[in-house]
Amino acid sequence: MTDSRAGTRRRRATTAGAAALVVVVGGAVTSCGAEQPSPRAELSFGDTLHTQYLRWHSEAERTERGPQDELFAIDLGASRASPGRSPLSAENIRVTVDLSAVKTATYHTMSPEHGCKASGHLVTCTPKNIETGDHRSLVLFKMTARASAAKGAAEPLNITVTSTNAPTIHHTTQLVHGAPSLTVPMGEDRTELKPGSELQLRPAFGNAGQLALDDDLNVVVDVNGQATLPKRYRNCRYDKAASPTKAVCRFSGPLPAGAAYETAAPLTAVIDDTGRQGMLSYTVYRAHDTPATALLPDSAPRGTGAPLGLRPVDGGDFSGYSAERATGYLGFHTTRTHDAQVNGFTLKGKVGKKTSIDLMGVDGYYEGDTVLTLPEGVSVEGSHEGDVSEDLYCSYLDRKNRKVICPGPLTTEPTLRFRIDERVDGARGTITVKPDPGRQDPDLTNNSAPITMEYLD
Fold first, then answer.
1. Contact between residue 78 and residue 132 where contact means Cβ atoms under 8 Å apart
2. Is the CB of residue 269 less than 8 Å from the CB of residue 198?
3. Using CA atoms, how far apart are residues 423 and 453, in angstroms rounded to an integer?
4. How far are the Cα atoms of 59, 328, 406 from residue 360, in angstroms, in the given order?
5. Most buried residue, 50, 82, 210, 346, by CB count within 10 Å?
6. Contact in structure between 226 and 277 (CB atoms under 8 Å)
7. What value does the mean pLDDT take over residues 174-178?
8. How far is CA 336 from the centre of its chain?
9. What is the spatial distance between Cα 88 and Cα 272, in angstroms, rounded to a whole number?
10. Where would I find the beta strands (DSSP E) of 360-428?
11. Is 438 exposed, middle or buried (0-12, 13-18, 19+ CB in 10 A)?
12. Could you tell me the CA-to-CA distances from 194 to 138, 249, 273, 276, 331 in Å, in that order?
């Protein structure tokens, strides 16, 4: 006789086992049976180019110079799909570049660093995991135009990126034979300006390349030092509603080969009443390949006046840069140049990570050595073996008291290499510059400024 109770126990065990199997397949479980989804990341293409230019060479140039290679690279960034503070990376990344449409160029010299291999018309790469919050520029292979390639737009390169814990993303880069070359006039410096006076900048640019730049243009103006930009032109976005120090102005293309323009009206900067010195810089970008860090959000305020226009100029003495960008500048010094001063800045980074910043780029303009008192929880490294001899690095003056000295800028600005060893909420430091002992400093109150911390997840 069959024991019905044993059969019931077997059926219950079978049912429970099936339920357990469903739970295991569906995701991780806790001791209470609640499902805990795995942390997810998101990948993005960052500043990956939408147009890849290959220089076009005549038959005579190819005979003289041989094949001319161009690097093909992408920029990948990782972020969290949902808030959290635990360490997370986009894992097991696989980049596939489909070149099946490309008939006018060859691709070769696969990058071993990123595990790149070619098979037929596909290039596959397996770069290292990318931590959330990080970006990585990946040079994948080289390309060379075929001798039969004609100038102009050619074929697309289709890129697919997968990860075991991030959604698949796609990007298309258009191949073009021949390249524009953005140019700008030589920078200049103006001296003996009065504090509180106005300084006018007319950004100018040209195209000395082989092809027209068939795109709109972004002109990004940045003010470093003691000055601000009045919010004026309606085709310009500004970083702040009051006292902006950055403007992004959009101009319609194309920019023909051989053409050059300057703005029809100046961008006017107002020097601070206590302003000592600074720089107005402008960078011209192809609109669709402008780096995200250079842009401003759509919500950024616009000027309320008439749009800023362009007028043709002779760009024969402009200096060439690249197909993607060119940078010009206008430096200024006021009659307060003996007023040694510094601006405060923020150290940003992840705990346990090393990074570096250029002091000139964050603390205004100064002469002579600068002394830092580091915020608690931060350490600094000086120069490394193999560094270029002309480069300048901050180093310890008094390690116990977190004192660091940064040499005065010469041909280059000093670099601060630092590591955030631990998170110390509210940690602050100072940056201090000493006045020239042979000159009277008219204002000693601006010789020191705070250093603050921003901890990134």
1. yes
2. yes
3. 9
4. 46, 17, 11
5. 210
6. yes
7. 94
8. 33
9. 44
10. 370-373, 378-381, 392-393, 395-398, 403-406, 414-420
11. exposed
12. 47, 28, 8, 9, 14
Burial class (CB in 10 A: 0-12, 13-18, 19+), 6: exposed
44-64 as b/e: b if 16+ CB within 10 A: bbbbbbebbbbbbbeeeeeee
- Residue 89: its pLDDT value, please? 94
Pairing of the two strands 51-54 and 166-177: parallel
Question: Which tokens in the block code for residue 219?
Answer: 């002109």
Alpha-carbon span 55 to 322, nearest angstrom: 11
pLDDT band at residue 74, thresholds of 50, 70 and 90?
Answer: very high
- Asked if 165 contacts 38 with a C-beta cutoff of 8 angstroms, the reply is yes
Looking at residue 69, what is its pLDDT?
Answer: 87
Task: Name 152's Cβ contacts closer than 8 Å, sequence gap at least 6.
Answer: 176, 177, 178, 211
Non-local (6+) Cβ contacts of 371 within 8 A are 397, 403, 404, 405, 406, 431, 432, 433, 434
Which residues have a Cβ under 8 Å from the Cβ of 129 and sit 6 or more positions away? 89, 90, 91, 92, 93
- Which among 377, 380, 378 is positioned nearest to 416, based on CA atoms? 380
For 238, the token pair is 């500004």
* DSSP for 45-92, written as a single string: -TT--SEEEE----HHHHHHH---EEEEEEEEEEEESS---S--EE-S
Phi, psi angles (nearest 5°) of residue 76 = -115, 140
The order of strands in the sheet holding 310-312 is 310-312, 260-263, 204-207, 182-184, 319-320
Residue 445 to residues 413, 432, 434, 441, Cα–Cα distance (Å): 24, 11, 11, 10
For 322-357, what is each residue's pLDDT tens digit?
889 999 999 999 988 777 778 889 999 999 999 988
